[in-house]
Design brief:
Distance between the termini: 26 Å
Radius of gyration: 20 Å
Order of helices and strands: HHHHHHHHHHHH
Number of domains: 1
Largest sheet: none
Structural class: mainly alpha
Strand content: under 5%
Number of strands: 0
Length: about 280
């Protein structure tokens, strides 16, 4: 399949890129730090303040790395003329982007698993205890977060005309969804004309932010959804139910598919109009 061919090409290029190893070293150091902070907690069963701190720390770095790595990978192909060469072959933009997504997903997951594996091994050697539940939870949380933001990175790279636009776009998305999102939510909710609109608006805004959606669902699944208040009561019901994981996966794949397809559509329209 052409998608797999593009994915293999991306994996080869990715592991030859010095940026990949720079991000890998940074992520490994960061992962070791947050696992050391969590090492004193015997289990994530029963949410703790330290667990929340570790989740928030992960949200600060991993999405930024993903946005920069993914967005630049796509934008550089256009800026350096590599896409012009590839487009002479029987390959569509959608096939190219999905191949990119698969290849970058493998690279990011490899980085994540390597970082957690090395950090866990070092902690075990030096006698720093960490429960298996905590280790698996943070590993899965990080992997899902990276996959969701990778789809946004592909979208940014598809829209951007060069690497600088991609860089600015990635940092902007990270700043909005991670740094100032709580202020935006408070501001939006405070201007609603009716109190009845608060709960549905809050839930919609949560779904629109991949970082917030993954964070809220993860905390609910480990048993402390009550920390979000009564406005999330319905979410606690479905998130902790037997079908909660299925709903989460549907939203996850919906985010990924929609982002990549929108990116392909905008890129195709831009090429047809001569804008890209």
């Amino acid at each position: 399949m052409r998608i797999l061919t593009v994915a293999k090409r991306e994996i080869k290029l990715g592991f030859r890129n010095t940026w990949t190893y720079s991000f890998l070293i940074l992520l490994t150091i960061f992962t070791m730090t947050i696992l050391l902070l969590q090492s004193g907690i015997t289990s994530v069963q029963g949410y703790t303040d330290m667990t929340g701190t570790v989740i928030n720390m992960t949200l600060y770095l991993l999405p930024l790395i993903t946005l920069l790595l993914g967005g630049l990978s796509v934008a550089v192909e256009k800026e350096d003329g590599q896409w012009d060469l590839l487009s002479t072959y029987p390959i569509s933009i959608y096939v190219f982007l999905w191949g990119k997504w698969i290849g970058l997903a493998i690279i990011l997951l490899t980085m994540t698993f390597f970082s957690f594996g090395l950090a866990g091994m070092i902690m075990f050697i030096f006698g720093q205890g960490l429960s298996i539940q905590s280790f698996i939870f943070f590993l899965i949380f990080s992997a899902i977060l990276a996959l969701m933001y990778l789809s946004i990175a592909i979208l940014i790279g598809s829209i951007a005309k060069n690497r600088w636009q991609s860089l600015v776009g990635g940092i902007t998305v990270w700043f909005v969804t991670i740094i100032i999102w709580p202020l935006l939510m408070i501001s939006t909710l405070s201007h609603l004309p009716s109190y009845q609109l608060i709960q549905p608006t809050l839930q919609v805004l949560t779904i629109l932010n991949p970082a917030e959606f993954v964070r809220v669902f993860s905390i609910m699944r480990i048993g402390d959804g009550s920390a979000f208040g009564a406005d999330y009561a319905q979410w606690i019901t479905w998130a902790t139910s037997s079908y909660g994981l299925l709903i989460f996966l549907c939203v996850l794949f919906g985010w990924i598919i929609l982002s990549v397809c929108i990116g392909g559509f905008i890129w195709s329209r831009g090429e047809n109009n001569g804008a890209i």
